[in-house]
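ERR on first pass: missing label on line 2. Operator R.T. fixed the label and resubmitted. Corrected input:
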Amino acid sequence: MRRLKQMKSRQHASLVAALSLTTLAACSERIPTSPENDVLPGAPVTIEIEVPWEEFGSALEVYGGYGTPGDLGTGVLANAFAGSLDARTLVRFGAYPQSASVQDTEGTTVTDTDLTVVGGRLVASIDRTDRTNDGPVTLTLGATQEAWHGRSAGWDHAVDTLGERRSWTEPGGGVVTPLDTATWDPASGDTVSFVLDSVEAAAWSDASDPDRGGRLDLVTEGHRLGVESMDLRLTVRPSVNPDTTVVLDVPRQATTFIYDPRPGPPSAGIRVGGAPAWRSVLDLEVPRELTGPAELCDAVGCPVTLSREAVSYAALVLRTRRSEEAFQPRDTVGLDVREVLSREALPKSPLGSSLIGAPGKQMPGILFREEEGAAVEIPITPFVRDRVGETASGADTGRSNTLALLSTFEPLSIAYASFHGPGSSQAPALKLVVTVGPSVELP
Amino acid sequence: MTKKLLCALAVVGFVTVPTSELEAQSLFNSAGLGRPVDAIDGRARAMGSFGIGLRGGSISPADPAATAWLARPSGVMVAQPSWTEASRDGVDAGDFRGTRFPLVGIAYPVLGGMGRVQLGSFLDQRFEGQRTLTVELGGTAFDVVDGFTQDGGVATASLGYSRMISPDVAVGLDVARYTGSVQRRLSRDFGDLDLDGAEPFTSSGSWRYAGTSVTAGVGADLGSVGRAAASVRWSSTLEADPSSTTDGSARSFDLPLELRIGGSAVLAPGLVLAASAMHADWSDIADDLMVDTSVGNASGFGVGLELPNVRLLGRSAPLRFGYRYSGLPFAHGQGESGSERAFTGGLGFAFNETNGVLLAGADVSVERGERSAGTLSEDFWRVTVALRVAGF
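pass 2 clean. output:
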């Protein structure tokens, strides 16, 4: 009797489970999608508007001096490039390795702390995308003879810090002791090596010597090329096995480049990039009402008060300008745009987060050389939507209407990007893609 | 143990089912104010009935008097999964599925009769739509996609009372508030355009429904051979109030007077015939609609058979069959009238029955039907599961 009752209970439970499963089977919703277009609300109108500079922009200013070439960690070489630009790369290496794991004469690996420097090689890697030469160029390496500061050294000054300013004994890095000369041919690879003998290599071994360092010069005139890195590879003889030599890498302590002449601020237009970097700052007033074009007015009636939701896309449209030849970009230029949080605090105002995000607006260098006049759109949709939203709500949030155009990293390169400014036929414009429709109503 | 389990399930259901879920599904949800969904249980569904005139007691907004025949405190929860395939001009127009809970109710003896609280479905409005348009930007034409989502519906929350006024006659009255809300959201996606950081356009609105209805019903046992019942539901206008962030306007919709009649008769021992009909003329709402919609009558009829003496696993398990036809009040375009037809079947099962009184049971129905209007057609499977408990 009890077994019968248990069996029935199990049957009942099974039935409940089956009913539950049946119900749950359709619980993952698949919503009906109506094939009827006429059940959708009226179609919004999407139009593109280009607002001229005079109606949205003002207070364009260019600021320079952000960062130093030493922040880049790369080098630049130039010799009378574009008739005027000279650039040299300075490098300083850290303390030499004091020990190495080597095999002794018995074949056992031991740590040898008694190493004898017998020579070395300085290997420079050339940036193939940032060069003006197609054929071989000659480079020379020398040893600096006076103290210099990695972050502040320039063409005229070996040290240029807040507490100390000291000129080179000779502009351009002072007098150097020649070490080696080499030829770099783009067809042969990316690197060029300079040989150091034991005395020359040993001269850089004293990490406390502020004079030590190497200077790389371009001998061939009329070119500019970037140096991605400079590495020192020491050749040492271990005491546990004098019949062999070992190559050791020396850590780099500072790399910078010095150049002359420094570009002055532009007389007009927008400049972004360079080392130290340039920023361009402008005020932007988003239109509150639209009175055209006719297509928009026909659809929803004019004037149309802009709402946050109506701004589908907003971008600054800049037209590229040929940069000063010595500083024309050869490589891709990355441009960023950020909100200036306090215009009054410029040039040191903090900036908001990137409106574009990594890697910024990427523009080929040719746009600032042969193909000047190209239109470049810098999307600023969130910035414009926020400002329109504040206007519509009447809320005064005290937020800045100032934008800064800058390179994605500061500094990014000795080269800079130039754009036409206000007052020219190619002045910046504000491109808006606006979508406006009738309000959604019940059927 | 089983009884406790069922009671627990029922209680959980009562507590967790929100009013806004009391909906069903169809492409006809997108026409006019949506598609009416009857708040009736699995037994009525299985017999093709409009939920009125069936022998025995039940909790049914369509038949307020029927609660008077319940002998004990009772509760019911109805779940309704459905699977639908749509076609347009004979061409596949998609398939969809979903589960709704059209009725949750509880009845308790009070003042010599039975009082009840019910949550019931009324109009299902959930659907999505899409259209592709061409926009011209900077002299170049681009395709953009407009997506539209409507989510929500109209439900009822009612208080009712029924009592026997003679040994064979009962009356009932329900007073209900229309409740629920609808959110309508139109969005335009610029994903295919070469615009970095473009934001989709959205425009939306939400409305909360309000209104009142009163349903009165009477039922009478015709000796031992059958039952006859009738009910009428009067509704105020259905008010749709926009939220504070909605640009769309407030609206009012005329709702129809709804008449239902039904009866059942014992044709032979173990064989019961049931028939019912309803009429609701929605034509007055046409003036309240702003879109091109065909408005008609939601009138219909249903007939069915019940074999109450069938047993399964040693328990009473009445077998039921039926057919049901009903008009759809809204159809797309002008001049189209929609209807729904379905063959129905199902069975009941008593989990716990004492002295002929059902304390816990389930009624299951399966419907295979078709909805159509003009060139739009839907084939559907609809399962209705009603869990009933009594004597708590």
